[in-house]
Structure formats: structure tokens, C-alpha cells
Write a structure and sequence with these properties.
Length: 66
């Protein structure tokens, strides 16, 4: 699953932006439209931190329900 900021995500974002521009969306709003369309699709959303360290300092981590 591609993460925001990865090459696959950026390639898909550029393609979506170009499609929006070709459909008549002004350049200033094409970027926002591409972001919204990718964020609506669950395959392109961030899955969150992959490790415990990625969740932040130990004292500031949210509690997990076990």
C-alpha cells in the first residue's frame, strides 16, 4: 500500500492533478482536487506508524486498548 510521500503516491497524485486540469479545473484548485480524491480512497491513506518508536515518546503515546 503506497504511503503519502512515496514515489507511487506522488506519481498517482501527479496523474490525478493532470486529469483534473484536463477536465477544466483551474490550476490553483487541481492540486486540492487531486489530494481529496486520493485521501477518499482507503488504498492511498497513510496506515500510521509502523513501529513503536514511530508512535512518539513513550510518555506521550496514546493508550492502546488491549
Amino acid at each position: 500500500m503506497p504511503e503519502p510521500g512515496s514515489k507511487k503516491y506522488d506519481t498517482r497524485h501527479a496523474r490525478a492533478r493532470k486529469d483534473a486540469e484536463d477536465a477544466g479545473t483551474p490550476d490553483a484548485k487541481a492540486n486540492d482536487e487531486a489530494n481529496e480524491s486520493l485521501q477518499r480512497d482507503p488504498r492511498w491513506r497513510s496506515s500510521g506508524p509502523r513501529t513503536e518508536r514511530g508512535r512518539g515518546p513513550k510518555g506521550e503515546r496514546p493508550e492502546q486498548g488491549d
